[in-house]
Amino acid sequence: MPSAIVLADLRKRYGERTVLADVDLDVQAGEIVGLLGPNGAGKSTALAILATLVPADEGTAVVAGRVLPREAPAVRRVLGYVPQDPALYPTLTGRENLRFFGRMLGLGAHAAGDATDRVLELVELSERADDAVTTYSGGMRRRLNLACGILHAPRVLLLDEPTAGVDMRSRERLHAAIGALAADGAAVLVSTHDMEEADRLCARTVMLDEGRVVASGATTDLVGASGIAASLSLRTLRPPPPDWLDGLGSVRVLAANGTRATLALDDPTALPVLLARAARAGGEVVELRFDRPTLADAFFKLTGHTLRDGDGGGRAS
Fold first, then answer.
1. Domain segments of the chain: what residues?
2. Nearest 5°: phi and psi at 168?
């Protein structure tokens, strides 16, 4: 099956500044892919190109089999784009906003009404549908913003920092709604600088830094590619003998001082054997902390800086 979103050798410059350089990515129907990187990494620019808002300078961009920018009008009919800042009319009610955007998306009056009821239920705003948007919380506005972008049941959905600044409950609701859209077959590309969001929401993540793709894959693949080992910190009842780790080739001592030790596990499946041996050699394990490497660890290892290093306090781009 051809990919619903394809970027190949994509380049974009603004003056002397290269925003995107040889970017490759693809998203299948029914898949959620995260575009992860700090502010200024080029995430929003990549989405804007796919949303037909700006043209690429070089390379290929294909959405639902249509090549951009040549087939931009056809792309807009199958595309949903949810910008980072909610694009809503605050004095209108949630329902009025949705019906307006439904008509703008080409839906007839009856179809727009039906679509409005459907998306209100999906984003859990039915009970507040007839309240003015000025009375909505930030999280509710984010959910309504998503609803406006999916009224026409798009085959491809682009989300730019969809949960930025929202509370945990609204984030969970947004994640559930996005997951439901993918389950119905939509291809979803979501930009974020939130490691936890990328890990929980996305099947795959594309790490973008200074306009370039530094790595892509599932979290386990990215962590594995970084070469970072899991770590185990423990304290035993009494100091274990010097040879207590003999034969465990996948375990390395990072630090040891009497009853305390910090170990690196190149193979986390060795953990049960290691704990059993620690209990025997040290009398009992009285403290334990196991840390798996995260996407944040992998990003730092692959780029040499954290996601926040590039923020600059501005909007993601």
1. 5-224, 229-292
2. -60, -40
